[in-house]
Amino acid sequence: MGTIVSPLPGIFYRKPGPGKPPFVNEGDTIEVGQTLGVVEIMKQFTEIQSDVAGILESFEVAEGDMVNPGDTIVVVRES
Amino acid sequence: MSFEIKNPGLATTVQDQGRTGHYNVGIPQSGSMDQYSAELGNALVGNGPGDAVLECTYLGPVLVTDADAAVAVTGAPVEVKVNGETRPQWTRLQLKAGDELSFGTIQGGTRYYIAVQGGIDVPEVLGSRSTYLLGAIGGFQGRKLAAGDVVPVGGAGAGGAAVGQGSGLPEVDTVPEEFRPVFAKEQSVRIVLGLYDHRLTDAGRESLLTGEWKVTPVADRMGLRYSGPGVEWKEREQPFGAGSDPSNIVDAGYAVGSIQIPGGTQPIILHRDAVSGGGYAMVGTVISADMDLVARAAPGTTTHFVAVSQDEALVARKELAELKTKAWEALGARR
After folding, report:
1. pLDDT for B200-233, tens place per residue?
2. Nearest residue in A to B104, CA atom
3. Residues B135 and B227 in one domain
4. Residue in chain B nearest A41 by alpha carbon
5. Which residue from A7, A11, A46 is facing B217, i.e. has the nearest CB?
6. Does some domain include residue B173?
7. Cis omega before residue B195 (within 30°)?
8. How many domains would you assign to chain B?
């Protein structure tokens, strides 16, 4: 299992904007460098990208929840 | 010499001790949010306390130096890397031309500082090299750093930023543990009540001083917003010129560090890039000695506000100045 952690604090969003579809969903095949969500802090959105390839197993943070640096955002079953 | 910015990080800016004397015309002091950490970075590399540094927020930059350079990273705990290898924080590092400085994930706090011998050599604006982002003045072209920027570094004693401020490196190359600040998830912040705390009910004042307040993610160089139990205001007929909410007053000047509570729900501490006035009642002001402490508070930090007298605030200010002097002496650095 690979885990993708947040490098910064802020509010986590799975969508690029309101009313838009999520970047990725559970069960999706993801690649290295693929955007999984964004974290908003100081009016800036930082993309959270995967550093592993595999199947997205689960989101550990819900849409709109606060994350701290080092918090696991996504668990990936590596391929 | 210069630093080439490969990746700017989230919000990396040039800062020094700030631009004082223009708050009356709406220009805030700016400067390093955590002055203590920035100054000790300067001490490690033989600069004066007023030399400019790079302030890194949560996500640090990746930069390459084009010449040999003495640097030090102080402030919030983070993994410091030179060409990918971990190096200590709060310690002087000797970079060779072409070396790459980068950072891991921040482990607490909010901001860390890169000090370099000679200082960051951008032009002074109104007497300071600090970046004021909202006003787009000072620092590197009045903005945060971007990829591809080439940031000039002053030559020690060669016409650069460090002239007359001592060019030699101090004997000791590491800040002793006892002089490093703590980056805790819980803080007690000392405040002097006023000018408008008389607008709070007794229960409201009680709530401010005994409640547990948490830093929200809405926190930047202008101010930090806290969530918590809220406060209660006294009923009154709002005076002419004041807004309709009981937290509104007729516009007044804001002190640096003052605490306003719009609507009575979420207190905001105004910090170094704050507006200089407005129409919210200031219930208290963070004492100057604790402003660096507030700057170190990451989102989620639990905060208790402790009321002190103005005399106690002045003693705390003196103690902080003495601590800084002792820290510089411990390094054998010249101020």
Report:
1. 999 999 999 999 999 999 999 999 999 999 999 9
2. A7
3. no
4. B217
5. A11
6. yes
7. yes
8. 2
